[in-house]
């Protein structure tokens, strides 16, 4: 179907406009799909906005809510799957439970992958943070690679303890300007340095905001990590390499033309997808920027950015 679509078709990676998962949970507020997404020739991938399930500490409530959110999203897009796709929400307390819900979402609901909002809160006080770079998550990554779907890592608001310790002195840095990229990039570099991509060489991870700053700093990261080899770092390759084999990035909300050009040099255009980050970023801002890129990218490269890479990663032609 996509092969016949107009070459101007865009694949958005967006987030459902349900505002925060928490708000929706508490109020039962309906989500709405943005009007612009209904324009001809566009496909938008919807998911539950942060922190969604990652903010639910109780494993049973989290797992149940993931099923509810996934069923709800599936039914909302069921009559319009040409235009909309879904990323599964997952409770990440137990890797087996997460793997089985992902399988259900992909096989039964037709979802294109999962979107996880950084670490999973858990524990009676919500202060235990679970990161998926640990060996107990191998069963999850195995399912992800068996299903051959990508997992998008999106930032989340930190728990209050982290905000107090690290940002009380400079509260204006809380949120997307600094805090989000710092927390999420550490999680992603955890996947790299703990050897997840060595154990799962076919794993595809998507990260937003033009790489959460990692791909702007690859030389320093990798030269410094070389010093960890004598300390037994499990990582077999280097972070630069994983950005060529396992990690894709999206432009979401980072509409910086010079940085895009730099990253094309660092990791290649075939690893970068246009996305917006709606509802945190306005759709017209993204449209204005992407339409301005015809002065810096040739037509073939612009099509790759706007749709080609996403069609590959999301297997939209299969
Ligand atoms: C799908 O259903 C929604 C909600 O009922 C409706 O607004 C929309 O027009 C429908 N889309 C199509 C393509 O039928
Ligand atoms: C995780 O879930 C599986 C499947 O329900 C269960 O068999 C296993 O005991 C759980 N693991 C833990 C650590 O709770
Ligand atoms: C990363 O590994 C690749 C492949 O071995 C190598 O060519 C490259 O120089 C390395 N990059 C850094 C910054 O160490």
TrEMBL record:
Gene Ontology terms: biological process: secondary metabolic process
InterPro entries in UniProt: ACMSD, Amidohydro-rel, Metal_Hydrolase
Domain Amidohydrolase-related: 54-294
GO annotations of cellular component type: cytosol
Keyword Transcription: no
Sample GO molecular function, one term: carboxy-lyase activity
Signal sequence region: 1-21
Alphabetic keyword roster: Decarboxylase, Lyase, Signal
Top-level taxon of origin: Eukaryota
Family per record: Belongs to the metallo-dependent hydrolases superfamily.
Protein name, UniProt field: Amidohydrolase 2
Organism of derivation: Gymnopilus junonius
């Amino acid at each position: 179907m996509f092969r016949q679509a107009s070459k101007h078709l865009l694949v958005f990676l967006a987030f459902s406009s349900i505002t925060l998962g928490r708000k929706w949970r508490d109020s039962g507020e309906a989500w709405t799909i943005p009007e612009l997404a209904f324009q001809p020739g566009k496909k938008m991938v919807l998911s539950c906005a942060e922190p969604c399930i990652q903010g639910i500490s109780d494993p049973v409530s989290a797992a149940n809510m993931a099923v509810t959110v996934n069923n709800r999203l599936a039914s909302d897009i069921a009559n319009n799957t040409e235009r909309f796709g879904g990323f599964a929400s997952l409770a990440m307390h137990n890797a087996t439970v997460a793997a089985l819900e992902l399988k259900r979402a992909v096989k039964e609901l037709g979802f294109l992958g999962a979107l996880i909002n950084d670490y999973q809160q858990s524990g009676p006080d919500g202060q235990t943070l679970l990161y998926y770079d640990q060996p107990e998550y191998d069963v999850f990554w195995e399912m992800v690679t068996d299903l051959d779907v990508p997992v998008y890592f999106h930032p989340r608001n930190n728990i209050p303890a982290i905000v107090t310790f690290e940002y009380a002195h400079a509260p204006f840095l809380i949120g997307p300007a600094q805090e989000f990229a710092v927390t999420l990039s550490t999680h992603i570099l955890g996947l790299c340095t703990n050897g997840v991509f060595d154990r799962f060489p076919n794993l595809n991870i998507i990260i937003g905001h033009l790489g959460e700053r990692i791909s702007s700093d690859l030389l320093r990261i990798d030269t410094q990590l070389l010093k960890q080899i004598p300390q037994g770092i499990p990582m077999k390759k280097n972070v630069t390499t994983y950005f060529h084999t396992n990690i894709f990035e999206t432009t979401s909300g980072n509409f910086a033309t010079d940085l895009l050009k730099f990253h094309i040099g660092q990791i290649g255009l075939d690893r970068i997808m246009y996305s917006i980050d709606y509802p945190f970023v306005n759709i017209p801002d993204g449209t204005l920027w992407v339409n301005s890129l015809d002065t810096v990218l040739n037509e073939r490269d612009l099509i790759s950015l706007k749709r080609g890479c996403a069609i590959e990663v999301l297997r939209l032609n299969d």
